Amino acid sequence: MMPSREQGRLRIESDGGWPVSDTIEFLHAFKAAYENILIFEMLLEGFAAPRLSVPRTPILNNRGLNLSTALWELPDEALARFLRPDDQLILQRVELSSPGFWEFAGALNPLEVLRMYLNDRHRRRQDRTYREAHERHRLALENILLENQVFRERMRMAEEYGLSDQDMTQLLNRFVYEPIQQIDIIDARGMVSFGGNE
Description:
By secondary structure, the protein is α+β, with helices and mostly antiparallel strands. It has helices at about 20-45, 50, 75-80, 110-125, 135-145, 150-160, 165-185, and strands spanning about 5-15, 60, 65, 90-95, 100-105, 190-195. The chain starts with 6 loop residues before the first strand and ends with a strand.
């Protein structure tokens, strides 16, 4: 049996008055980003499992990642079945005012990556003259992952254990960059004003 993950909370500030369709679309993208980052963490844990003494997940073979199945091509719905009930993202509190907030509970590390990303995004948005190139945006996301001690350690161990740069790049693209980019695309209108822990 896998040990429980450390739990955390994330409060996202938002002004009210958004169409229901926009809100549903944003919450769906946020949930998908959370789940994908959690799966990315599980994959890194599984790849480093011999050193961490943690059980393998069903998406891993005995040597580590089963990359021959093109894991990054599976739809989010197929991957979500590997999440345990206690890893689900919970919408714990909502205040519908202007300003208001959504408060989420879930696994700490994915919430922390999303919090750091939203805070970084908020700072970039405040600087109206700042226009970030796509590659610099990707590097900023990678730095956010590396600032998280757990992800930094798991990525280092996975690389030491033989995960190639190409596989790491594909996993990062599929499970971190693309899902977070969906939040940006949907929230281009400014629905989220700030993300921080309570």
